Amino acid sequence: MTNKNPLSILFIEDDMIERMKFNRTVSKLGYENKIIEANNGEEALKILEGNSLLPHVILLDLNMPRISGIEFLKRLKGDDRLRYIPTIVLTTSNNQKDLLECYKIGIAGYILKPLKYDDYVDKIGKLLSYLEINQFITT
């Protein structure tokens, strides 16, 4: 499936295997989105601050070194230029405290990573289908 309007996605994940799995899944599903990878929230903020073209959406892991996903969200949503980028948490944490905190800060969604690869492909496929029909602010 070739998407008509490829999206720019900032994927923030410290685990190399998870980044490879995500890229393989996007490719397997036939999407041609531009994936920008960051190993942690600190690196992601540098990418965002140094880039005039902002991503359409951010996919964020919560459990990362340097600054946590929640700290990244606080900094992102506190920045007038970056606060409107829809951010979806993609994590293994089903901690209700994390879930509530993320929604309080202003996330667009919270997705638990399933253990089985087929379930992961299914969830990412649904997410990308949803994102493809969504309207985004373009800069």
Give an overview of the whole structure:
This protein has 139 residues and is of the alpha/beta class. Helix 3 runs parallel beside helix 4 (96-105). The chain has a single domain (8-133), classed as Response regulator (Rossmann fold). Helix content is 42%, strand content 17%.
Summary keywords:
single chain, 139 residues, Rossmann fold, 5 helices
Short summary:
Strands 2-1-3-4-5 form a 5-stranded parallel sheet.
Using the 3D structure, state the CATH architecture. Answer: 3-Layer(aba) Sandwich
Determine the mean pLDDT.
90
Radius of gyration: 14 Å
Determine the structural class based on helices, strands and strand pairing. Answer: alpha/beta
End-to-end separation: 26 Å
Number of DSSP strands?
5
CATH fold title:
Rossmann fold
H/E topology pattern: EHEHEHEHEH
In percent, how helical is the residue content? 40-55%
- Classified in CATH, the superfamily is Response regulator
Query: Can you tell me the CATH class?
Result: Alpha Beta
Q: Number of helical segments?
A: 5
Strand proportion, as a percent range, falls in 15-25%
Count of spatially separate domains: 1
Q: Could you say which overall geometry the principal axes of the C-alpha atoms support? A: globular
> How are strands sequenced across the largest beta sheet?
2-1-3-4-5
> Quick one: biggest sheet?
5 strands, parallel
Low-confidence stretches: none
